[in-house]
């Protein structure tokens, strides 16, 4: 009768896992944020706080709730070209836009000519917008805007419409003012292409597999 005995030593394989790509954030801002979301103040403190910042973020009230016209402004971000944009947040601090009034207050919003009126209006209607209220909104821009954002030149245009809000209810026009605006741009950082990669050393540890046979002879 024969009896075989053998032992196993596990075979260890260390996989060379690919390291995830790093992500960098580029933040460009026009004007400076003077008020937190939900702040309510009269026009004079608002104008004073933003005085001296670049137009249209210089505290000047654009249009008029009572006599018109409606708010309309455009501004321009300029920064160096970027590559591999993976996400962009558009951030806006705006005063007295009055989305709390009935209907939609955003009549037009474009980023490099791409119409995002509905997207910004949904955000405006989601909260804030009381009379003399300053709100800060963050809108994640769709991928259709990324090519333009990689160019480093971004035109923003925003127009509002009535009704606004006044002491005696809704108004025939809707003026507003701007506190600040920013773009928070995420880019994927690929490994440098000019540096040769170190020789890949696959960590393959082959364990020993021993087979020990004991042969016994039964007498
Ligand atoms: Ca509204
Ligand atoms: Ca207004
Ligand atoms: Ca400001």
Summarize the structure.
The chain is mainly beta and 219 residues long. Helices cover 11% and strands 36% of the residues.
Write a concise keyword list for the protein shown above:
single chain, disordered N terminus, 4-stranded antiparallel beta sheet, 11% helix, binds calcium ion, Jelly Rolls
Structure report:
By secondary structure, the protein is mainly β. It has a single domain, classed as Jelly Rolls (Sandwich). The protein contains 3 helices and 13 strands; from the N terminus they run βββαββββαβαβββββ. The protein has helices at 43-50, 117-126, 146-150, and strands at 12-14, 22-30, 39-40, 72-78, 85-95, 106-111, 114-115, 133-140, 153-160, 164-166, 169-171, 177-189, 203-205. The strands form 4 sheets. A 5-stranded antiparallel beta sheet has the order 2-12-5-8-3. Strand 6 (106-111) and strand 7 form a beta hairpin. The longest helix is centred in the middle third of the chain and has 10 residues, at 117-126. It is elongated and about 70 Å long. The site of one calcium ion has 7 residues, from loops.
């Amino acid at each position: 009768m024969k009896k075989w005995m053998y032992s196993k030593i596990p075979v260890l394989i260390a996989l060379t896992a690919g390291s995830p790509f790093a992500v960098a954030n580029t933040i460009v801002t026009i004007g400076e944020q003077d008020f937190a979301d939900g702040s309510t103040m009269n026009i004079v403190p608002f104008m004073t706080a933003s005085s001296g910042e670049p137009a249209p973020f210089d505290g000047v009230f654009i249009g008029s709730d009572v006599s018109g016209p409606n708010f309309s402004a455009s501004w321009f971000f300029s920064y160096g070209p970027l590559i591999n944009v993976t996400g962009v947040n558009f951030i806006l601090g705006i005063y007295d836009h009055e989305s709390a009034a009935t209907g939609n207050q955003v009549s037009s919003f474009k980023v490099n000519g791409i119409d995002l009126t509905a997207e910004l209006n949904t955000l405006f209607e989601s909260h804030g917008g009381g009379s003399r209220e300053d709100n800060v909104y963050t809108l994640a821009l769709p991928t259709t805007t990324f090519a333009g954002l990689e160019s480093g030149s971004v035109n923003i245009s925003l127009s509002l419409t009535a009704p606004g809000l006044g002491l005696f209810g809704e108004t025939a026009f809707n003026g507003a003012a701007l506190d600040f605006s920013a773009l928070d741009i995420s880019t994927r950082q690929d490994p440098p292409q000019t540096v040769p990669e170190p020789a890949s050393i696959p960590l393959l540890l082959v364990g020993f597999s021993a087979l020990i046979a004991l042969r016994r002879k039964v007498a």
